[in-house]
Amino acid sequence: MILNCLIVDDEPIARDILRAYISQVPYLNLAGECRDAFEAMQVINRQPVNLIILDINMPRLSGLDMLRTLKKYPAIIITSAYPEYALEGFELSVTDYLLKPFSFPRFVQATEKALTTVNPSFSSSASTGEKEDFLMVKSDKKLTKVFFYEITYVEAYGNYIFIYREQDRIMSKQTLTQFQEQLPGNRFVRIHKSYIISLHSVKFIEGNEVSIGTKKLPVGKVYKDNLLKKLQ
């Protein structure tokens, strides 16, 4: 499921950060950005919105006052530099309360709560273990926690693999097929006998190559149809 989310914040820098975070989460779609509560209420009335990422301190009408004026609203994640409003926020049944500045993993945690609120079946799948957002990878005599959202692509290297993240790569002794079995099928796809990619990292496809960040990786003929199907 894709959540159409709306950023409501009067600070341009805060909107920039949220926009960058949202672009990295595969189940989020940025439906719009608003600088105040009145603008947000107009957007809510004219298009479907599943999630509002809402600042509290805004000119004319605060985020909490906006919620009080609405008879019904979608999932809400509050963002604020002020912890004293947290109780008031949860009394209004908000999904989560993020204290600025917050990290990307904390943001993902909050949006997963929102996804569970909007689509309870996501919670059901979690009880079967499908929701785990990370795996432990054995590498260089240690176990490293690797979040799925960190992985851009995985490359086979004989009986080893390289797991590429934006900041580094991890080498692990296992085959590409063994590693693929540990990945959520809705977030990753095999594109070649030597490569698995993260769907959210795809920038574009040109001919038989796919662009992942600054890399262009080959797409095998037998894998291309499945790649295109997953990206639809």
Key features of this structure:
232 residues; alpha/beta; Rossmann fold; OB fold (Dihydrolipoamide Acetyltransferase, E2P); 2 domains; five-stranded parallel β-sheet; five-stranded antiparallel β-sheet; 15 strands; 32% helix; elongated
Low-confidence stretches: 124-131
How many separate domains? Answer: 2
The count of helical stretches stands at 8
**Strand percentage, roughly?**
25-35%
Taken in chain order, the helices and strands follow as EHEHEHEHEHHEEEEEHEEEEEH
Question: CATH homologous superfamily of the largest domain - what is it?
Answer: Response regulator
| Separation of the first and last Cα atoms | 13 Å
Shape: elongated
How many E strands? 15
Per the CATH scheme, the topology name of the largest domain is Rossmann fold
The strands making up the biggest β-sheet line up spatially as 2-1-3-4-5
Backbone CA Rg: 20 Å
Overall CATH architecture of the largest domain: 3-Layer(aba) Sandwich
Question: What is the residue-averaged pLDDT?
Answer: 88
